[in-house]
Amino acid sequence: MAASAEPGVPTRRRLPVVNNADAAGLVAMLHAQIDTAIEHRSDAAAAAGIVIACKRGCNMCCLVPVVTTEAEAVAVAVWLAQPENADVRKQYLAAYPAWRATLGSLI
């Protein structure tokens, strides 16, 4: 922390502001790395005869609230807004009211 006007009291530093496009891009890169790691894990599990119950992309988010960063939420919104994802967006919008009612104040 930087020195403060008052001796012995540190001042806070402001973090750099990241715009939505950069945030979504960073999250996409992170997810690509995670996807690669999951593929390696799945290959290693299969080679060892271990069965993983859920498949790629499953993290029980349909049943359990998943905490995300704002950048991850922006990345999802950007992805859902793309015309080629219209079917997924339609499914999301159809499921959202029930999901929201179930989670209530947790959101």
Descriptive notes:
It is a single chain. By secondary structure, this protein is mainly α. 54% of the residues lie in helices and 0% in strands.
Q: How many angstroms separate the termini?
A: 33 Å
Mean pLDDT, nearest integer? 80
- Tell me the Rg in angstroms: 20 Å
Q: Give the count of helical stretches.
A: 3
Sheet having the most strands: none
Give the SSE order as H and E letters.
HHH
Helix content: 40-55%
As for the number of domains, it is 1
**Poorly predicted ranges:** none
Question: What is the overall silhouette?
Answer: extended
For the secondary structure, the number of strands is 0
Summarize the structure.
With 107 residues, this protein is mainly alpha-helical.
Task: Outline the fold blueprint.
Blueprint lengths: L19 H28 L22 H12 L4 H18 L4
Helix pairs in contact: 1-2
Please name the defining characteristics of this protein:
107 residues; mainly alpha
